[in-house]
């Protein structure tokens, strides 16, 4: 009999928890014992309503948790969106049956922001990868995975939703393999050029001298709408770029970052190093505008060059 | 023809014109006065014409007129012109469309409408054009004038033509004008204004064309051109002039007859702030002697007139950008505060005879600080758009024609 402890920090895990709960394999959910966010509170509320047992994950010590897991006869552990590095004692407790789900085709995009960086790099598909937890983050052997397509218009929220929808299928696949003792663990390649580090503030500001149209488009959707929102500067003020589209422009002799068109129908068009870009949706302190209205309201005129 | 045209327009109700919300917002007071005065069409048109005649009478007069009097007259002309623009029924899309073309910035009619208030630009041009026309008409019975990139109000000519008509100084048989602009919104507004001013007899045609490609059928006696911004940047003045100068008659004139673009190294605070602290308005007559003495002049970067235009050689760079070679300047060595100075580029416009537009008389001759040019110092962040040189270096200036026009320095 497999009994799971599910380690998580937010509602995006609900679909997977539900699956385990309904298939009678869920023993408890382990939540971080820290300042509760609205998301975490919502999850807690739902767990309570569903009569699911929750355990607190102590940030400094595993002793209590281990004995509680033991008393619940937990023998499987699944981690998703936990954002805390688990300690060796816990890993040992599960003796190889503690797994993590990472939303990227590992070894690519190891790190805390895999979906963000995949969108920003314009990947057209991703994978939910289920791998063994080892002391090295995101590096354990892989049991199974599930491919998810990324639509060219998907924002980070769209992909997060798709991932949440796909979770039960992946967990089911794993459980079935486990049941039949049919898991083959595959080693990951050690290295990958593609990583998913923390996003620095500076990386969120559009660099007109370096970024291509496509890169800015992807940067905008990767951050829509999330803490990692793309930003551009105009007159000492920062504005959010929530959506942009590539447009063709034969224009030469104009610096990247220059406004080359303001038009009610064609919008607000900016020269880039490899063509041009229409700024579709812009977030300001005063509300959200399309590029044309933003330009008219904020006095952004053709010929003006935005700085970096 | 004239009477019929009046009849037709008087049938229209001007009481509540269909005006785009944006235009309505920016010309609210003018529209309100239109509504409260409850004018008939004839009365409005009469006021409009009078305002154009009055402003021109003042600037053509040889007796000194006070600045405030001029400003008032030009404001009145503006108020009337925007009423006419409102009646032209431009859609918001046409009103606000602005873009960078292959040869420079194309401003929106909404942004262009203010130039008719630019007193000393219009004064310098109107006086010059008036003298040029007089002197041409001494020898021939009729002349063709081309005014490309004229904008929604063609402010360098329509006031003058209104004055000619009112004073009967010259008739439409003597002066035939081609107005040209690439912006369909400008064309719509212009058509309305010409109609309201009842200047049809002077207008040969109104063409919606890119002036850098336009081939007039007539040969031209006077080419009137103003398509530049401060520092001789952004708009396509040079490309337009260079193309259209070939359609001038042998003895044809371009107005302005010469534009001299000059460079100087200035202390920004002195040049742009201190100098203007005590004066009523900025004008070349009001510059401050100390501030002028503090400038380090680099000399003329380029001069644009019929003969330089006809001899200009275009160079095409690898990326397809077209440039024209301008002057070489050797940066002076004996200036101890050079590292604190910024480059400012300014134009002096000689329209005709003794008439012109001097530095600070208008937005178009206002010195333009160039914050990408560094002498004896380094920029805070290294951007590839920055130019860094030292005192004593020789700098070759080029003028870029493609995209957004302006000067590009290169170290020799
Ligand atoms: C500042 S406005 C009017 C300029 C006018 N001469 C004045 O003194 O106010 C500029 C106008 O020039 C027009 N323009 C600029 N470049 C042009 C070009 N290459 N061909 C035709 N029109 C052009 C624009 O469409 C716009 O209406």
Automatic annotation (TrEMBL), chain A:
Domain Formyl transferase N-terminal: 57-167
Pfam family, one: Formyl_trans_C
Residue ranges constituting the Formyl transferase C-terminal domain according to the UniProt record: 200-282
UniProt-listed PANTHER family: METHIONYL-TRNA FORMYLTRANSFERASE, METHIONYL-TRNA FORMYLTRANSFERASE, MITOCHONDRIAL
Protein name per its UniProtKB record: Methionyl-tRNA formyltransferase
Biological source species: Motilimonas cestriensis
UniProtKB/TrEMBL annotation, chain B:
Gene3D superfamilies in the record: Vaccinia Virus protein VP39
InterPro entries in the record: SAM-dependent_MTases_sf
Record-given protein name: Uncharacterized protein
């Amino acid at each position: 009999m497999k009994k799971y402890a599910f380690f998580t920090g937010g509602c995006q895990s609900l679909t997977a928890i539900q699956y385990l709960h309904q298939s009678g394999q869920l023993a408890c959910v382990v939540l971080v014992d820290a300042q509760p966010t609205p998301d975490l509170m919502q999850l807690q509320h739902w767990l309570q309503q569903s009569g699911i047992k929750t355990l607190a994950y102590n940030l400094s010590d595993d002793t209590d948790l281990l004995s509680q897991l033991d008393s619940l006869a937990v023998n499987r552990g699944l981690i998703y969106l936990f954002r805390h590095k688990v300690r060796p004692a816990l890993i040992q407790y599960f003796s190889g049956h503690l797994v993590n789900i990472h939303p990227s085709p590992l070894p690519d995009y190891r790190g805390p922001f895999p979906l963000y960086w995949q969108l920003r790099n314009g990947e057209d598909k991703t994978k939910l990868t289920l791998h063994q937890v080892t002391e090295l983050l995101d590096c354990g052997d892989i049991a199974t995975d599930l491919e998810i397509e990324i639509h060219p218009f998907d924002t980070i929220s769209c992909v997060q939703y798709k991932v949440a929808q796909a979770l039960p299928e992946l967990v089911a696949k794993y459980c079935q393999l486990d049941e039949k003792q049919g898991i083959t663990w595959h080693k990951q390649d050690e290295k990958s050029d593609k990583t998913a580090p923390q996003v620095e503030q500076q990386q969120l500001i559009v660099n007109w001298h370096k970024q291509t149209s496509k890169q800015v488009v992807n940067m905008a959707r990767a951050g829509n709408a999330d803490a990692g929102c793309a930003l551009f500067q105009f007159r000492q003020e920062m504005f959010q770029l929530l959506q942009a589209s590539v447009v063709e422009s034969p224009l030469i002799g104009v610096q990247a970052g220059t406004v080359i068109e303001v038009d009610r129908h064609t919008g607000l068009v900016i020269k880039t190093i490899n063509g041009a870009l229409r700024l579709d949706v812009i977030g300001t302190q005063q509300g959200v505008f399309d590029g044309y209205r933003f330009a008219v309201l904020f006095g952004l005129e053709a010929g003006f060059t935005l700085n970096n | 023809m004239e009477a019929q045209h009046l009849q037709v327009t008087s049938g229209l109700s001007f009481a509540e014109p269909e005006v785009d919300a944006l235009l309505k917002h920016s010309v609210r007071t003018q529209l309100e006065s239109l509504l409260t005065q409850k004018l008939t069409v004839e009365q409005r048109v009469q006021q409009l014409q009078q305002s154009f005649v009055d402003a021109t009478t003042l600037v053509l007069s040889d007796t000194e007129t006070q600045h405030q009097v001029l400003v008032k007259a030009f404001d009145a002309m503006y108020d009337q012109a925007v009423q006419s623009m409102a009646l032209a029924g431009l859609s918001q899309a046409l009103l606000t469309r602005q873009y960078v073309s292959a040869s420079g910035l194309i401003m929106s009619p909404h942004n262009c409408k203010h130039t008719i208030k630019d007193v000393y630009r219009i004064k310098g041009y109107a006086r010059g054009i008036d003298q040029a026309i007089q002197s041409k008409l001494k020898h021939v019975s009729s002349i063709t004038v081309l005014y490309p990139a004229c904008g929604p109000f063609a402010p360098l000519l329509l006031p003058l033509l209104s004055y000619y008509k009112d004073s009967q100084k010259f008739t439409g048989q003597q002066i035939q004008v081609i107005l040209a602009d690439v912006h369909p919104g400008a064309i719509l507004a212009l058509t309305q204004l010409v109609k309201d001013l009842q200047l049809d007899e002077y207008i040969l045609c109104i063409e919606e064309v890119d002036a850098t490609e336009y081939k007039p059928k007539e040969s031209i006696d006077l080419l009137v051109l103003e398509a530049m911004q401060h520092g001789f940047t952004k708009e396509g003045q040079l490309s337009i002039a260079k193309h259209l100068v070939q359609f001038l008659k042998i003895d044809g004139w371009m107005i302005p007859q010469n534009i001299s673009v000059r460079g100087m190294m200035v202390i920004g605070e002195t040049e742009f702030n201190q100098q203007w602290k005590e004066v009523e308005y900025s004008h070349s007559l009001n510059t401050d002697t100390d501030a002028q003495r503090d400038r380090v002049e680099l000399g003329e970067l380029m001069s644009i007139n019929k003969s330089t235009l006809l001899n200009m050689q275009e160079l095409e760079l690898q990326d397809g950008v077209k440039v024209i070679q301008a002057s070489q300047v050797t940066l002076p060595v004996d200036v101890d505060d050079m590292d604190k100075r910024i480059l400012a580029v300014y134009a002096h416009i000689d329209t005709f005879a003794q008439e012109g537009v001097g530095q600070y008389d208008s937005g178009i001759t206002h010195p333009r600080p160039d914050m990408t040019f560094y002498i004896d110092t380094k920029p805070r962040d290294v951007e590839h758009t920055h130019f860094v040189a030292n005192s004593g270096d020789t700098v070759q200036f080029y003028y870029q024609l493609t995209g957004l026009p302006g000067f590009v320095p290169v170290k020799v």
